[in-house]
UniProtKB/TrEMBL annotation:
Every Response regulatory domain range: 2-116
InterPro entries noted in UniProt: CheY-like_superfamily, OmpR/PhoB-type_DNA-bd, Sig_transdc_resp-reg_receiver, WalR-like, WH-like_DNA-bd_sf
Modified residues (4-aspartylphosphate): 51
Residue ranges of domain OmpR/PhoB-type in the record: 124-217
PANTHER family: REGULATOR OF RPOS (PTHR48111), TRANSCRIPTIONAL REGULATORY PROTEIN CUTR (PTHR48111:SF36)
UniProt keyword annotations, A-Z: DNA-binding, Phosphoprotein
Alphabetical list of SUPFAM superfamilies matching this protein: CheY-like
Highest taxon listed in the record's lineage: Bacteria
UniProt cross-references to SMART domains, sorted A to Z: REC, Trans_reg_C
Annotated protein name in UniProt: Response regulator transcription factor
Keyword Ligase on entry: no
Positions of the DNA-binding region: 124-217
Length: 217
């Protein structure tokens, strides 16, 4: 899942980014509304976590601009105000969900994942290919009945490949969808992760390399 965090308080923005990345999400960060709009129009984000009270370009303006541009990214709006009137107004501006500060990390993560699922409404509850099974909600994966001890990034790669349903996925697509702007496109990050993932599968041949094109299951 690709997420953009928009928050002008850099310490909070960086903390949110770290927490979500630790949970396996691909996260970019913007500290102002203008940068956020530029990124949103360039990158296909699943979820934008948007502070409402941004200076310069206000969070309300960001929401309004997304509506004008026809961007369908889900928006989780953050605000210091917990009043019902503010919540109603924020949702009326186009936000999909609303979370008052201070918030619990577990709730922020749960709401972000829920919006991400809404961004992909046809997503299957369990991804299966023969003896290989992955449960996105429970964050578990197994192969031939054996649980796979995957890192968050290995899990995200396997989830993306299984969801592709046999389609060949290029390294560039994986880098764009599973990693974020912090990843160096000139590195062998994708190949190294694929190799580690193969080593943990009961039968490594289910994860195939298509020369010059990418990978598929």
């Amino acid at each position: 899942m690709r997420v953009l965090v928009v928050e002008d308080h850099t310490e909070l923005a960086d903390s949110i980014t770290r927490v979500l990345r630790r949970e396996g999400l691909a996260v970019d960060t913007a500290y102002d509304g203008r940068t956020a709009l530029d990124l949103i129009l360039e990158v296909d984000y699943d979820v934008v976590i948007l502070d409402r009270d941004l200076p310069d370009v206000h969070g309300d303006e960001v929401c309004a601009e997304l509506a004008v541009e026809g961007v369908r990214t889900k928006v989780l709006m953050l605000t210091a105000s917990a009043s019902i009137a503010d919540r109603v107004e924020g949702l009326g501006l186009g936000a999909d969900d609303y979370l008052a500060k201070p918030f619990a990390w577990a709730e922020l993560l749960a709401r972000t994942r829920a919006l991400g699922r809404r961004a992909h409404p046809v997503r299957r509850p369990e991804l299966v290919c023969g003896p290989l099974r992955l449960d996105p909600a429970r964050r578990t994966a197994s192969h031939g009945g054996s649980q796979l001890p995957l890192t968050t990034k290995e899990f995200a790669v396997l989830e993306y490949l299984l969801d592709a349903d046999g389609r060949v996925v290029s390294a560039g697509e994986l880098l764009a969808e599973v990693w974020d702007a912090a990843a160096d496109p000139g590195t062998t990050t994708v190949k190294a992760t694929i190799n580690r993932l193969r080593a943990k599968l009961v039968d490594a041949t289910v994860l195939r390399t298509v020369p010059g094109k990418g990978y598929r299951i």
